[in-house]
Amino acid sequence: MSLSALADTDPVETPDPGLDTVEKSWHGEIRFSADVDWASYSKIQLERATVEFRKRWARDLRQRSGIIIKERDEERIKSDLADLLDKVFIRELSSKAGYVFVDESGADVMRVVPRVVDLDVIAPDRVRDYIGHSLTDSQGSMTLELEFYDSLNGELLATTSQYQEDPIKGYMEWTNSVTNSRAARLMLERWTIWLREWLDEARVGTLD
């Protein structure tokens, strides 16, 4: 499975109602409500991530390399990435930030809704009877989005959007399901570390 980080999207110029821009750079942003007591949330209710490919991804892949992607290939890649996102997200925020992941709502529970958009897999493996590979200088890119809600009253607490990519190496290397999965995991780890550090600051009230 090949993953990438977040795709190029124009920054949103108008803040969500009640949300202030906290951090904004070329690769992403976090917006949150200034009235949120982040220290009051110790648990996370994580929804399964939705995954969408970059517009015209399959067509461009076919024109560029002759690879024909079937619907079952797309669904497998989406499912694998959603599984990996859950695994990395839970590991980073439970073991290193102390959050407890739960299935039910509660006064100390945030509901987190993740989305992967503009997923661009440079050389995806297809469903077949042999292990395939291609030569590429990057595995791809994607944009990761999150929405945080109070699990009881549904209040929107914060939104995040961050672009991630497998850096262009400057040389070609073999690409297959193993290298794609590794690149995706590294991108997701960078994303969750960035998010965890922000949440750590928010909980102790040290945001600039």
Give a structural overview.
This protein has 208 residues and is of the alpha/beta class. It has one domain: Rossmann fold (3-Layer(aba) Sandwich), CATH 3.40.50. The strands form 2 sheets. Strands 1, 2, 3, 4, 5, 6, 8 and 9 form an 8-stranded mixed β-sheet that branches. Helix 2 packs parallel to helix 3. It is elongated and about 50 Å long. The N terminus is likely disordered.
Keyword list:
alpha/beta, Rossmann fold, 8-stranded mixed beta sheet, two-stranded antiparallel sheet, 30% helix, disordered N terminus
Q: In summary, what is this structure?
A:
It contains 3 helices and 10 strands. It is an alpha/beta fold and 208 residues long. The chain is elongated, with a radius of gyration of 18 Å.
Distance between the termini: 38 Å
Uncertain parts: 1-15, 127-133
Beta-strand proportion: 25-35%
Q: What helical percentage do the residues reach?
A: 25-40%
Which H/E pattern describes the elements?
Answer: EEEEHHEEEEEEH
Mean pLDDT across the residues is: 81
How much is the radius of gyration in Å? 18 Å
Structural class based on helices, strands and sheet pairing: alpha/beta
Which CATH C-level class is it?
A: Alpha Beta
Number of helices: 3
What's the total count of β strands? 10
Gross morphology: elongated
CATH topology: Rossmann fold
The CATH architecture name reads 3-Layer(aba) Sandwich
Count of discrete structural domains: 1
Largest sheet: 8 strands, mixed
